[in-house]
Design a protein that fits this description.
Largest sheet of chain B: 2 strands, antiparallel
Oligomer: heterodimer
Mean pLDDT of chain A: 90
Strand order of the largest sheet of chain A: 7-6-8-9-10-14-15
Helix content of chain B: over 70%
Shape of chain B: globular
Number of helices of chain A: 16
Number of strands of chain A: 15
Shape of chain A: globular
Largest sheet of chain A: 7 strands, mixed
Strand content of chain B: under 5%
Helix content of chain A: 40-55%
Low-confidence stretches of chain B: none
Mean pLDDT of chain B: 92
Number of strands of chain B: 2
Number of helices of chain B: 12
Number of domains of chain B: 1
Radius of gyration of chain A: 23 Å
Structural class of chain A: alpha/beta
Chain lengths: ~425, ~300
Amino acid sequence: MNEDDAKRGMTRRDFIKASAGAAALSIGTLAPFSKVFSEQPIKIGFVSIFSGRMAMLGETGYNGFIMAVEELNAKGGLLGRKIEVLRRDSKGVIEEAIRIVRDFVTKDKVDLIFDQSSSREAFAIREVSKDQKKLTFVTASETAELTGNPKGWSHYSFRTGDQDVHNSVVAGIYASQIAKANKWTKWGSISPDYAYGRDFTDAFFTILQMQYPEVKIVGQMWPKLFEPDYTSHITAALNAKPDAMFSAFWGGDCASFLEQAQMYGFFDQIKYFGNGIADYTVLKALKKVPAGLYTGSRYLRNVPDTKENHEFCDKYQKKFGDLPTHWSQECYTGVLFMEAAAKKAGTLETEAMIKALEGLAIRAPWGTPPKGTVTMRAKDHTPIYYSEAWGVTISNPPYVKDIEYIDWDTILKYEDLVYKKRGWM
Amino acid sequence: MELMKLFECLGSLSCLTTQITSALILGMVLFLVASGLSLIFGVLGVLNFAHGSLYMLGAYFTYTLLGAHGNFGVTVILASMGVGVFGVIFERLFIKRIYASPLLYQLLLCYAFILILDDLVKLVWGYEFKNIGVPDSFRRPPLHFLGSFMPSYYLFIIIVGGIVALTLWLVLSRSKFGKIIRATAHSSEMVGALGINVNLVYAGVFGLGSMLAGLGGVLAGPVRSIYPGMGASVIIESFIVVVIGGLGSIGGAFIGAILIGLMRSFGIIGFPLIEESFVFILMAVVLIFRPRGLFGKKEA
């Protein structure tokens, strides 16, 4: 019936709008009002960073988001209602992000919020959304702290992207297999100095040492996020001579480090495990992708190597003339979750949506074959069963070979161990 | 533990030379940006907070020019001169209006231009970060000496930085132009009364300072990621260099930049957890014991 309404609604809407108020007053019934409301567009508030050095987070995330929204609107909208988007730039300023999200709820009266912010703002936004009881999709912040730590956990927030403990479990198990085979026991690390970099690295070594107890950590370095020059770190690492190094660098930092390290012949001397190399932002930017590095897949067209993922990638490239990023995929997945939950609940009402989302499994380009689904875990509102893989870099497309997946039973088992170590379970 | 590693490093020739060269590399780029900042402040009395944006422009000009014709030598000259020309226009159109205004107005104007230039760069070159990559002629194994490594491109940066430092010093202390600049810094009214076009001197100095920041961006561009807002990454450290070296002193900027390089490259070995804070500790110490900076002149 909703579809019928939508089809006829276009011609009728103006008339109803004009007469609704008068009708309500004269007839004294609220029925016309509810009719009008049900045909009003769904409002989504999208907050991210669109300016400065993190603009890529906002722009490519928004691309993935708006592509999914436009697909939905082309199909006649969600629950028969068109989707309207309010896009706001927090500039990465926490206070600004809080103000925007408050305005979303109180002034703009949005139905739900997409929070494509860095972890810094994400914690603050979580508090506002909790306070205002507004359903929020956390698409970018990957730190487990946000959803894993029972302290501060929010009933209203749902992550639709990676969770860093999953990433580090996969990285740790993958690295331990290779380290054992080659007897690489002296390890160092270099990761950006903020929640994500520290948590990821910490969990990585927890898993690595669990799997391969001979591993010794000989030196850890924490340059600040967006550090422009790593020369002193590179030379210090060359002096310390670990067998292998782990890094949670991503984006521009990752590209800078690779470029600067290559000049020193760094990778001929030290094996390198970098989680963030295999993302098109980095691969495209580098003039020459160094071969033989171990990398996690942030986003690649061939991880997972499925028809759905290829289609997503090609569609995105056709529309925006550029390859998608991991962020595009996380936002795209967020809209898919929203769509499936709304259809299941039959409404966008917050509590009904939350109930529908908990435990919801959806088909998504990001799902692990053969089932191809991603599941929203009920207990902590974090997705599981998405595609997580590591491989070895090669200089030319598709840039990564020997791709290995770790099965999710193992990931979840080790996730528990990390959570217990952190006192979250 | 970590502190032992520092002593081990200080006792090992290869570690010592590697870290000293890495300090020089860090220091040279910093010196180029900071010397421009110091020069502009010394002569014009303007704290150019938008100086980091000029560094960014240098890097983006390099990106475009190198992509267009591939000759790195020509790119270095054209891109840094381009930033210099931009600086002259910027000074004539905007900065000259606020010489007599309180510091707050300078801050506002410069901050506005940080935002405007970031957005402009985003419009012209896009929001995604870019890597220029080391020019092909420098793509070769690093040089070995005294048991340490030195990439050839970094040797090039150190040589260029050294030449610029020497030239600046000679020009400012020995040439007639330098004399005029120093006189203008001292008393612009007097210089004007002697029939020298002060406006021209101001524009020239601002252009020269901008060109130095641009050159920093040109040289660092190929090895660092470039993105809108990248100026923020150098501006704070440049200010620290100027504070340590003494406002308006080019020699001070040189020593300050090298000192910061040394703090970073040895701090990472001995105190990897708090390496970044050493730069600030150094600044605090200088401010406590010598508030005018190492080479700053006493206020009259």
